[in-house]
Amino acid sequence: MSNLSPILADDRDERSFEDPLDLMDEIDRLKVEKDAVILAHFYVDGEIQDIADYTGDSLKLARDATQVGQSTIVFAGVHFMAESAKIMNRQKRVLIPDLLAGCSLAESCPPDRLAAFQKELRDEERDFVTVAYINTSAAVKSLCDWIVTSGNARELIEERVPEDKEILFVPDQHLGRYLMEVTGREMILWPGACMVHEMFSLQDLLRAKRNHPGSLVVAHPECPQNILEVSDFVGGTEKMRQFCMSLDKPATILVATESEMIHPLKRSAPQHAYIPVPGIMTETGETCACNRCPHMARNTLQKVRDCLRDGQPEITWQSYFDKAKDVLERSLLENTRQAAKMNGD
Ligand code: 13P
Ligand code: SF4
């Protein structure tokens, strides 16, 4: 992913305005004409989620990508997601609306640095396995033993990583620390972090709780420990959605994750009021909009239409995808308790 810079301004303003309803009609027509299907992550703009054929968290979308019948997949998300979809579907054309939609976590773990660190550990005769969060490049995945998402990490580690092995967990230190806590396993943590979740401010969250007495806090495990400690529920985006759906009684829910997540929450559990937790306080006392992922925000209806129409940008097959395919399929598609649960078994 050397063509990515970690923080990229949203370039939507450079384009002339087009009526979203017209764009949606055009996208519907192009989907049929091009034999295409649209997958959209919960963090992309709500209007893209509305026209998508599949929406979900990283885990569900990776699995959905292997089930679709169409010859073209448009992945409205970020690069590692589209890349994973290509890796598990070599025969299909996988398009991404903006090739520059990266991820600060994936950026934090270049393959050469990981390989060098693994060598150091081996030279010390450490008996370890490398578990990578799916938010990594394919080149990094090809160096790892297991790939996890926030949706299956705990189950996979508990069920499939032998207890006598040390775990090197890359690249999210916050998710890794949380997994150490819930699995009781010691881990060597890579010092990466999500640029969105790391910015949540405890001060702001406590103030929001005080302003909304009786409210509940739901938080993504990519948040730092001080945020998780004051949360009522910790889970990835799909688990968060399930949790909100499970509460019949209307509640006020403070949401400590990317702000577009409120769109699927409102759709799935409209009985609640959702309040996005703001990012860190600025010197003026105002809050900044740090809870929007600039990479996810690169996806627009216009770009979805353009990539459907033009057949690009496309994720093309790379030689190291073969190794990444083995580990991805073993980790995400083989039966685990989690996969069985998702299938309603
Ligand atoms: P999940 O959808 O797996 O919860 O992940 C969140 C995320 O940061 C995706 O980039
Ligand atoms: Fe990466 Fe964070 Fe954006 Fe998810 S929200 S894509 S982890 S930068």
Structural features:
345 residues; alpha/beta; Rossmann fold; 3 domains; five-stranded mixed sheet; four-stranded parallel sheet; 16 helices; 13 strands; disordered N terminus; binds 1,3-dihydroxyacetonephosphate; binds iron/sulfur cluster
Strand content: 5-15%
Oligomerization:
single chain
CATH superfamily (homologous) name of the largest domain: NadA-like
Give the tally of structural domains.
3
Average pLDDT, rounded to a whole number, is: 92
Assigned CATH class of the largest domain: Alpha Beta
Q: What are the bound molecules?
A: 1,3-dihydroxyacetonephosphate, iron/sulfur cluster
Number of helices: 16
Helix content: 25-40%
Strand order of the largest sheet: 2-1-3-4-13
The CATH architecture term of the largest domain is 3-Layer(aba) Sandwich
Order of helices and strands: HEHEHEHEHHEHEHEHEHEHEHEHEHEHH
CATH fold-type name of the largest domain: Rossmann fold
What value does the Rg take, in angstroms?
20 Å
Which structural category fits the helices and strands?
alpha/beta
Query: What does the largest sheet look like?
Result: 5 strands, mixed
Count every beta strand, where a strand is a DSSP E run of 2 or more residues: 13
| Poorly predicted segments | 1-10
From the N-terminal CA to the C-terminal CA, the straight-line distance is 38 Å
Assign an overall shape.
globular
